[in-house]
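At your convenience, could you comment on the folded chain following this short note?
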Amino acid sequence: MGKERDPRDMRDDAGPAGAATPAGDEERFDIYDERGAHLGTAPRSEVHARGLWHRSIHCWLARRDGGRKLVLFQQRAEGKDTFPGLFDITAAGHLAAGETMRDAAREIEEELGFAVPFEALIPLGKARKEAAGTAKGLAFVDREISGVYGCVYEGPLSALTLQREEVAGVYEAELADMIALFEGRTNRVRAAGFRLGTDGAPEDAEADVEAASFVPRPASYYSGVFRDLLLRL
């Protein structure tokens, strides 16, 4: 994944010593310094208000359809605080305090209804992201260190069950076309999949996606992940 890889390798199967999620209504995250050293925990709102480094998991699903090699991506629900309606990683989520990447892999099943053993995920490196914006009128700074994984999905899109509060739809497109999109060799790519209708039922859908249709990240992140997946299909 080129520039997005992080050489500082936090262990994916072991959380910080002594970390725990205290009782309370607000989720807490483990927080880190810029070099990845664990500093303690903080409430989610404080983490994003102060721009504290924390951890997340990214999982990209890819599949073969005859001779085609496809990558799946979600469309964020319109009710999301940040980047509503934009296209994004197939499944992703924050690590709560004390959680490991193995624990956080639950996000795949929660968002997509697809249960996959952690051992079946393909490690694709780590990515660091710094972003700023507003959510519900409040400024935020998001600084994440993410474990990035791929997964070969062998079922049809129609077998996925979406978490309506998080995911509005799921689409797929040719990996080679998506690489060209984020390397600036084409302006748009045709994608097909399904969306949830107003009654929550899935409806077939198509979309012409552009790089600007995705959650803002360096183009090298997307093209690097897609090249890694293409090699593994």
In short: The two ends are 16 Å apart (CA to CA). Residues 180 and 186 are 6 Å apart (CA to CA). The first helix runs from residue 44 to 50. The mean pLDDT is 90.
